[in-house]
């Protein structure tokens, strides 16, 4: 009596099992990449909110002339209240406003000897640097997720489900030269 059919059956069961394990691994990896994108987005949002708060603090610090304070406060408010479609533009405007404030002639000289001015400027510099890092981390996570979603298996078996394709966050985030 021949048991070749049992060997064939075991072979195909093993093949199906290995394919299922591989598909599950790819789906799990894609899920982890989407979680990474969401986490990086939350960190980016926190850094952007912090930068806007520090900009408002600088505007209210009486270290600037009233017109400059108003421009900076308006840009910070617009950045904090912008909807998802206008967020990138509002954040870019805030970056440009911060650079314009710091690049004013005589700005550094006006802060000499003022401890509160140095502290606020340190906070502005730290918040602006964190935005640059957070945006880079977020865009790297988005690139990884988009690369994974381009794979044949992910598209053939809709392993991404209904998750939207993550988009890059592009702003003018050059920090002010302090």
TrEMBL record:
Domain of life: Bacteria
Source organism per UniProt: Actinomadura parmotrematis
Membrane-traversing stretches: 6-25
Keywords: Membrane, Transmembrane, Transmembrane helix
Protein name: LemA family protein
């Amino acid at each position: 009596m021949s048991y070749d059919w049992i060997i064939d059956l075991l072979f195909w069961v093993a093949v199906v099992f290995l394919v299922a394990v591989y598909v599950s691994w790819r789906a799990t990896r894609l899920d982890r990449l989407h979680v990474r994108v969401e986490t990086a987005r939350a960190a980016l949002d926190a850094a952007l909110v912090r930068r806007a708060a520090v900009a408002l603090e600088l505007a209210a610090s009486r270290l600037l002339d009233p017109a400059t304070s108003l421009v900076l406060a308006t840009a910070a408010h617009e950045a904090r209240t912008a909807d998802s479609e206008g967020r990138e533009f509002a954040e870019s405007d805030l970056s440009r406003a911060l650079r314009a404030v710091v690049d004013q002639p005589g700005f550094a000289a006006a802060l000499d000897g003022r401890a509160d001015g140095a502290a606020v400027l340190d906070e502005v510099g730290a918040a602006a640097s964190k935005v640059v890092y957070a945006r880079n981390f977020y865009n790297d996570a988005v690139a990884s997720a988009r690369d994974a979603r381009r794979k044949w298996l992910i598209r053939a078996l809709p392993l991404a489900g209904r998750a939207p394709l993550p988009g890059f966050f592009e702003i003018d985030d050059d920090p002010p030269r302090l």
